[in-house]
Amino acid sequence: MVKPMTVAGAVVCWGVLLVGCTPAGGSTPSPEPTPEPTFQCTPEAGGEAYACDEAEHERMVARDEQYAEAERVYRRAMETANDLLIAKEAMSDGLRDLTVGAAQEDLEKTLLEASRSDVAYSGEMEIEWVRPTNIADRGSDLALEICSSPGTQSFTANGETTAIASYVLEDVFFTKTDGGIKLSSIKGAEVEEC
Fold it and tell me: What is the pTM of this model?
C-alpha cells in the first residue's frame, strides 16, 4: 500500500530540489563562455597532428574519405585483374569501370598478352601497406604509395611452377571523374622488401 505524502513532506522534498539547484549565497553565477571546439588535423602525407579549425578539419576528413575510396578502387581493380589473369581472360567491363587512361591501357595490354601466352598464373600478391602521398602524375587528383609482397602468386611455364619472389613498390594515381574515383596510372618497381 502506498502512503500518501503529507504537504509538509512535499514541501521538504521540493525545498531539497531547489537547494540542490541553487548555489550557496542565493545568486546565480554568470554563464562561462563556451570553449571553442579544438580540432586535430594531420598532413596529407602523414606526420604529426596539429591544431586546426573546423573548416580545415572538414576538408581533411573529406580528403581522408577520398583516399579510403581510392584504396578500395585499387584493391577491387587488382583483385579483378588477378582473377582475369588466372582465368586467362582479357579486359572486363568491371575492370574498365575502375580504370581510365594509362592504367586502363596498360592493364588491357597485359591481360591480352597473358591470355594468349602459355604461362599459367595462380595465387595473389598481398598488400603489405598503403599510404597517401602528395606526388602527382598526368593530372592525377590523388596518389597512394602501395607495397605488396609476393603472397601466394606463382606462374607455371613449360611444366615448371615458379613462385614470384619479388616485392613491388608502386606509386598509384587516381583521377576524379563523374563516375567516381578511378585508377589512372601505376608506376612500380621491384624492391627487396616492404
Answer: 0.76
